[in-house]
Amino acid sequence: MTDTYEVFYIINSFRQVNQMLFRAFWNENKEIELTSIQFMVLSILKERPSIGINDLAELSHMGSSSMSAVVERLVKGDYIERTRSDADRRSVMLQITAKGEKAQQETHQLWMERVSPILEIPKEDLEHLLHIHSLMIEKLQGREMNNL
Fold first, then answer.
1. Which position has the higher pLDDT, 24 or 123?
2. Is residue 41 part of a domain?
3. pTM
4. H or E element that contains 88
5. Is the pLDDT at 31 greater than 70, yes or no?
6. Which domain CATH number covers 60?
7. Has residue 129 been placed in a domain?
8. pLDDT tens-digit series, residues 59-97
9. What is the domain count for the chain?
10. What is the helix, strand, coil percentage profile of the chain, to 5?
11. Listed residue (100, 98, 92) closest to 74, CA to CA
12. Residue 140 — very low, low, confident or very high, per pLDDT cuts 50/70/90?
């Protein structure tokens, strides 16, 4: 197998797993009102209340402008709210609302029902997979820095 095909099969494998996760949950479930990104944002805000948009973008591995659009939709939907920081009036902090907490909890429960079969994979294999992912991220970040 040539290097080109090997890379293709690796990338295609990630794409297939991503598609299966999406189909298993987001595509077939009309009762869920959140997108996967919105769910992730609400989950982060639940764990880390009162953080700023830049921190949220960093934790989500997204750009600030993309995160701003997601936040704006969540604010309009009354899932999160913006508040001014007491320490620095120029800083805007994000907090999950009661409606946002309820949506996050319901979505989390459905998510776990759908993806929990992954946990049937032996723990050692999952740990090995995560280690390989870390190695791949490290290698790709090195390449990314060279191309700046």
1. 123
2. yes
3. 0.76
4. none
5. no
6. 1.10.10.10
7. no
8. 998 999 999 999 999 999 999 999 876 766 677 899 999
9. 1
10. 70, 5, 20
11. 100
12. confident
Please check whether residue 134 lies inside any domain of the structure. no
Average of per-residue pLDDT values in the chain: 87
| CA–CA gap between residue 22 and residue 17 (Å, rounded) | 9
Taking 70 as the threshold, does the pLDDT of residue 29 lie above it?
A: no
CB atoms under 10 Å from CB of 85, counted, come to: 12
Which residues lie closer than 8 Å to 124 by C-beta, 6 or more apart?
Answer: none
DSSP 70: H
DSSP 36-52: HHHHHHHHHHHHS-SB-
Number of H helices, E strands in the chain: 6, 2
CB burial of 103-140 (b: ≥16 within 10 Å; e: otherwise) equals bbeebeeebeebeeeeeeeeeeeeeeeeeeeeeeeeee
pLDDT at 51 over 60: yes
User: Does residue 3 fall inside a structural domain?
Assistant: no
Instruction: Assign 29 to helix, strand or coil.
Output: coil
| Of residues 101, 59, 65, 97, the one with CA closest to residue 81 | 97
In percent, the amount of the chain with pLDDT more than 90 equals 53
Structural domain that includes position 88: 31-117
